[in-house]
């Protein structure tokens, strides 16, 4: 149960992180954001990133083995990285349709999946 809760919170956290880090690249397409300066965009992104932390911190606390969770620190980090990539890819497919995924991207993703395998291997 803690593993599923941790992973769910990491997915939510990474959704907000991706919106904060890359969502602003689409702001210029929205009428009320088109004239905002960089400082305004940074502040909006920080506001979005606040929600990332609301989910990330509990995910790590719940999931960390020394707090009674199922994952070591290294396992938590690798899970977070793979979840970040999956969320980022979904975000890219939905909002940046002009971006393409190439074979080298898929190979890199495969290596990250292998990293998860080796990190969790006993």
Automatic annotation (TrEMBL):
PANTHER family: DMT FAMILY PROTEIN
This protein's name: Transmembrane signal peptide protein
Keywords on record: Membrane, Transmembrane, Transmembrane helix
Membrane-spanning intervals of the chain: 36-55, 76-96, 102-120
Residue ranges of coiled coil: none
């Amino acid at each position: 149960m803690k593993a599923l809760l941790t992973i769910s919170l990491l997915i939510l956290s990474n959704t907000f992180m991706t919106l904060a880090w890359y969502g602003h690249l689409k702001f210029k397409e929205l009428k009320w954001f088109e004239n905002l300066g960089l400082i305004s965009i940074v502040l909006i992104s920080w506001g979005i990133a606040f929600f990332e932390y609301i989910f990330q911190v509990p995910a790590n606390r719940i999931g960390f083995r020394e707090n009674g969770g199922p994952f070591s620190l290294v396992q938590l980090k690798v899970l977070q990285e793979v979840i970040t990539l999956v969320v980022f890819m979904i975000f890219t497919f939905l909002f940046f349709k002009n971006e393409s995924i190439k074979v080298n991207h898929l190979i890199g993703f495969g290596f990250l999946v292998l990293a998860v395998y080796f990190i969790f291997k006993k």
